[in-house]
Structure to design on (853 residues):
């Protein structure tokens, strides 16, 4: 059982920098022990060196007091507790709302409420799914429900007011588009018989406060909120109608306390108040932006070109962009710390946990001409993948029984650690973001041989074969561009570098076009577009614009543009950057039961390329692999389709054969659609690039998982070695 | 089990034996059809495998769905020393769940040495 977990404030760090470690203990122990280690191998497979961690002498290696840390989950906007709000006696509130998960639970849209003290005011959806207004003075509550159940995924104008002079409370619920036969409009007034006491409370949008003086929020809303407004008197109907529009009508300025503009400054956590008061709000836990609002009519697809059509924010009660734990210890990395994959090994007497991080070299202090590019964009996209949350039929695609590990048991009990971009939110809307500021239970040793732990087979092999190398990450490449690669002769990837930002592709193109050599040791690589947050490290956005796999959801219509960067998202091929330009391959088929061996092509015996197979005796090779036995070609495999999207001079060295019935075509590759002539297979290719650059691609996720067979003395290892030795000369 | 029950012929013990010999890999079209049905077992109570110690020890598991939330239940009394044996047990239990017929004493798949390149490893 997992009882200790943790995370760092970022995934990639340099010598001299300080890294912060956040740890939570659930076991009933007073202390836990932390030790920094560098990984040789992260896996227990019986073929190679086995699990191997090298101790690192660090001053932070010691016992720490154990504590349990709580994770705040759910997004909302906090406008603080400004004195302007305290001055409110009478007031009106209004918003456009689009609820997405009506359930037996209260969900606040616009509040100045303390749940603990039961005072303040809140416009919310009650347990029956009706709009309601709640007023409280600390001893009594006046609750005014609309009596009409809201429909999910329909826009409503919702308004409420309190008149301090007459003591009247009012509420209205009006569908923007009325459906025939549906009775979901309401407009009512009641006698409040109390004066709400909201002094000193925070104004929140999308939740309410748990108690005054606390930063905590509860009653998170699932759905979209558009144009939330707060006024200091009871407005009439025509004033309320005018208030939906910005800029504010002149005569309303004196009455409007806040009018938050969700359509502008979408990249910022700060939400501007368009009123004279400038009571800007701060967004917590990254709700979805770049989503359509109540005015969207389909004539515009880019949120930046028509902010009025995108004036909504989609809040979720399961958003998490930062677990927000307190720091347990901080470590300043020694200046001479070698680049590599590291972890803080945590031990609480019961469970061992490894909090993984990547140490890249300081510019100018690289120690080798070889770099391993850790696919952190892909690790993030898959972070906290919840296989057990998959749909029933997914096992048919896998071709084996679902196999869980301790991290799955832990995730099933800990919804607050969020989910991966392969799943949907609780309200079935897509998960756009993944953050490294939370425990990520599949970026750890001994976990499933997929992404991190699969890629580490390359790290193990490099070290076992005696190569010196540096470790760099996707995010470093994204932020620094080709200058990060310039010191290297060869860059190796792991088994599944699926995700890339435009900046990453540009850097790799430039590298291979100016003498650099790329060894793409995987499958389904460089296929999908992702965006990194411009400021917060380890924060990723991806939208499944061109088809969603597994349990993921498609973005809604008009929501293909990334909120972090304004880029159009989706599959790189459809965005004009086909993966074949970089790798000489197209991602085509997948199947996760077992693998298959490769057979050499006739061309592979040409003297210009036959060196790849020096020492390889058989034409058929690689009939072994940890990924379901079978062979080095498997899981997700790429084909060489050829055609205009390919570089010239690509030689197919080998192709896999004899795959099982589980393999299936990737429907989102339209390049394959017209060329589906051959049976499923992986192609291994090599080609030159201008200025002595070169690319070697294996086209299979399983390749690295064959490297350690027979203690690294095997044909897959031999071929990889032949290419690396030749490439780095 | 009502909708899929009829798709399984409880007399096809030849398919059971084919699966036992090779839980993963090439399968006859009839076994493929059978596996499509068994693997689409409803998610409430769906059989699965739990990996206790990678490459060494597995247990039977089930996924349960309550109020839209899934939990994983590990049967610590049903453990295996190979993935093949675990896959077989999942198959056997599903066969019984779908057909109502007990497969009796049919033993686990033939054992392979742990270093055999064909042994089933991954944790997918
Ligand atoms: Fe993938």
């Amino acid at each position: 059982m997992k009882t200790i977990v943790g995370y760092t404030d970022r995934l990639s760090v340099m010598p001299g920098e300080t890294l912060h470690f956040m740890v939570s203990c659930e076991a009933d122990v007073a202390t836990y022990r932390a030790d920094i280690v560098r990984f040789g191998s992260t896996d227990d497979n019986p073929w190679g060196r086995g699990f191997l961690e090298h101790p690192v002498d660090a001053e932070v290696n010691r016992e720490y007091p154990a504590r349990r840390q709580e994770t705040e989950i759910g997004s909302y906007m906090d406008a603080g507790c400004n004195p302007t709000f305290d001055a409110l006696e009478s007031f009106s509130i209004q918003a456009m709302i689009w609820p997405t998960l009506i359930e037996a639970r209260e969900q606040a849209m616009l509040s100045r409420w303390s749940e603990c003290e039961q005072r303040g005011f809140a416009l919310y959806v009650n347990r029956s799914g009706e709009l309601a207004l709640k007023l409280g003075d600390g001893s009594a509550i006046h609750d005014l429900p609309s009596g009409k159940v809201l429909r999910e995924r329909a826009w409503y104008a919702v308004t409420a007011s309190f008149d301090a002079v007459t003591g009247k409370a009012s509420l209205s619920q009006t569908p923007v588009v009325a459906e025939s036969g549906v009775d979901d409009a309401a407009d009512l007034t009641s006698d409040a018989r109390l004066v709400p006491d909201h002094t000193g409370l925070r104004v929140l949008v999308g939740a309410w406060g748990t108690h005054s003086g606390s930063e905590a929020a509860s009653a998170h809303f699932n759905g979209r909120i558009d144009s939330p407004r707060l006024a200091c008197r009871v407005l009439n109907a025509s004033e309320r109608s005018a208030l939906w529009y910005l800029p504010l009508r002149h005569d309303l300025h004196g009455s409007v306390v806040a009018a938050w503009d969700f359509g502008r400054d979408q990249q910022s956590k700060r939400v501007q108040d368009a009123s004279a008061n400038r009571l800007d709000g701060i967004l917590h836990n990254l709700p979805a932006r770049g989503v359509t609002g109540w005015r969207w009519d389909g004539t515009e697809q880019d949120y930046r070109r028509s902010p009025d059509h995108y004036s909504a924010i989609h809040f979720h009660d399961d958003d998490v962009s930062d677990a927000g734990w307190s720091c347990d210890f901080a470590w300043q990395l020694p200046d001479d710390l070698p680049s590599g994959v590291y972890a803080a090994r945590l031990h609480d007497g019961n469970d061992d946990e490894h909090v993984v991080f990547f140490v890249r070299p300081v510019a100018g202090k690289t120690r080798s001409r070889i770099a391993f590019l850790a696919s952190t964009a892909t690790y993030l996209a898959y972070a906290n993948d919840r296989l057990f949350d998959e749909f029933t039929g997914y096992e048919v695609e896998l071709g084996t029984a679902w196999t869980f590990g301790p991290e799955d048991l832990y995730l099933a009990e800990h919804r607050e650690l969020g989910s991966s971009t392969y799943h949907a939110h609780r309200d079935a809307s897509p998960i756009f973001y993944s953050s490294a500021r939370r425990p990520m239970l599949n970026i750890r040793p001994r976990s499933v041989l997929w992404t991190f732990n699969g890629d580490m087979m390359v790290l193990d092999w490099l070290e076992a074969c005696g190569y010196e190398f540096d470790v760099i990450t996707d995010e470093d490449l994204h932020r620094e561009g080709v200058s990060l690669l310039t010191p290297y002769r060869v860059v190796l990837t792991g088994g599944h570098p699926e995700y890339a930002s435009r900046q990453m592709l540009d850097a790799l193109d430039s590298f291979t076009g100016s003498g650099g050599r790329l060894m793409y040791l995987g499958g389904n690589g460089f296929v999908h577009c992702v965006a990194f947050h411009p400021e917060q490290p380890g924060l990723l956005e991806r939208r499944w614009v061109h088809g969603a796999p597994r349990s993921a959801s498609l973005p809604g219509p008009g929501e293909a543009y990334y909120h972090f960067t304004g880029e159009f998202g989706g599959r790189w091929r459809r965005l004009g950057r086909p993966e074949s330009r970089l790798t000489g391959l197209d991602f085509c088929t997948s199947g996760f039961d077992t693998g298959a061996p490769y057979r050499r092509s006739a061309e592979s015996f040409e003297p210009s390329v036959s060196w790849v197979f020096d020492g390889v005796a058989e034409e058929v090779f690689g009939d072994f692999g940890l990924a379901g036995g079978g062979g080095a070609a498997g899981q997700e495999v790429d084909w060489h389709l050829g055609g205009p999207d390919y570089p010239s001079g690509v030689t197919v060295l080998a192709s896999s054969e004899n795959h099982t019935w589980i393999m299936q075509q990737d429907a989102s590759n339209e390049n394959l659609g017209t060329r589906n002539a051959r049976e499923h297979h992986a192609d291994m290719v090599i080609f030159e690039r201008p200025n002595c650059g070169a690319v070697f691609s294996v086209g299979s996720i399983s390749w690295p998982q064959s490297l350690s067979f027979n203690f690294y003395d095997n044909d897959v290892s031999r071929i990889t070695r032949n290419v690396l030795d030749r490439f780095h000369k | 089990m009502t909708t899929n029950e009829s798709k399984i012929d409880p007399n096809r013990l030849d398919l059971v034996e084919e699966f036992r010999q090779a839980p993963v890999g090439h399968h006859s079209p009839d076994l493929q059809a059978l596996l499509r049905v068994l693997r689409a077992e409803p998610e409430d109570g769906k059989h699965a495998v739990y990996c206790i110690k990678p490459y060494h020890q597995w247990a039977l598991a089930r996924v349960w769905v309550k109020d839209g939330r899934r939990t994983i239940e590990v049967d610590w009394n049903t453990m295996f020393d190979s993935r093949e044996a675990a896959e077989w047990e999942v198959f056997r239990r599903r066969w019984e769940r779908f057909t109502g017929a007990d497969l009796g004493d049919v033993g686990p798949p033939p054992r392979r040495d742990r270093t055999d390149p064909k042994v089933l490893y991954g944790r997918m």
Summary: The beta strands of chain B are 46-53, 57-66, 69-80. Chain B has one domain: 3-102. The pocket of fe (ii) ion is lined by residues A 496, 498, 524 (CB under 6 Å).
